[in-house]
Hints:
Layout: H1 6-24, H2 28-31, E1 42-46, E2 52-56, H3 70-77, E3 84-89, H4 98-106, E4 117-121, E5 130-134, H5 143-147, E6 153-155, E7 161-163, H6 173-177, E8 183-185, E9 214-216, H7 221-225, H8 231-235, E10 241-245, E11 250-253, E12 259-261, H9 262-268, E13 284-287
Parallel strand pairs: 3-13
Antiparallel strand pairs: 1-2, 3-10, 4-5, 6-7, 8-9, 10-11, 11-12
Amino acid sequence: MERNTRRNFIRKLGATVGAAGVVGGTSILSSCNSVETSSGDKIKLLTSSGELVEVDKSQLTPAEMPNLSENQTRGREGLPGRSWVMVIDLSKCRNARECMKACQNHHQLRPEQHHINVLQMQDAEHTAPYYMPKPCQHCDNPPCTKVCPVNATFKRNDGIVLIDNERCIGCRFCIAACPYSARVFNWFEPRDAEKYKGVTYNIEANVPQKKGTISKCLFSADRLRDGKLPSCVSACPNGVYWFGDRNEDAVTNGTTKETVSFSKLIKDNAAYTLMEELGTKPRVYYLPPKDRAFPFEGELIEHHS
Ligand code: SF4
Ligand code: SF4
């Protein structure tokens, strides 16, 4: 029996729409003279050929949705009562890249793939350069989840934005929508594909990775469930990362293990969020690179616009 996946649902819909289009020309509804009760309630749908069509709700028969596994259901809800936040202290990052390595190992990423990247930054011509780690910002108003046609990417109650690669059809709308370039596409077979063949998919770690789908930072949702800090936070040797729960107003430093008030930390240090003007409401806060703990090393790469 054919698996009733979301992908098949879209494919079947595409076939139906295509047939109607041949008969009726411009509009599907105008081609259907059997429409006796039009609800007037229109819905937009994406066909398998990437066409956006509008149909009356009365013309649709709800498809049977695949049952979500326990892991998928649990992963969609998140940890009750939690509201996760990250604070990144730019005065402490020295480009050690241990966060990147730990993340790549945790999420079985290929060497060229990053959920978190350490960027070289310089705000103006005569100001000092600094390093800026940049993961997914876990926006409270995420543009990425709104464009996904199959509800593969979503925001859960505890603030984490995840991806369900059992549902992702690889359309990459979410990549186009993310202003932080936080998402990566699995163009090739994932690292160690043979080794992880047959391993049950874990939605909170997004492993095993799957060719033709999306991956990105997940705040190590699986580790949080186990009471651990995210991989990048634990791996940093320089005290750059604070992570914790906004509801508890507490964040813990991954290196020193010190726990402090989140609101005080961001207020006392004039923290900011990236591209605030877009209204995406990121959950990643940056402490400005003042009183730097080290000299900037390496050569600043020049970018030309
Ligand atoms: S940073 Fe990009 S991928 Fe992450 S939640 Fe925001 S829009 Fe989505
Ligand atoms: S590529 Fe992005 S938008 Fe498209 S189905 Fe996958 S998660 Fe959704």
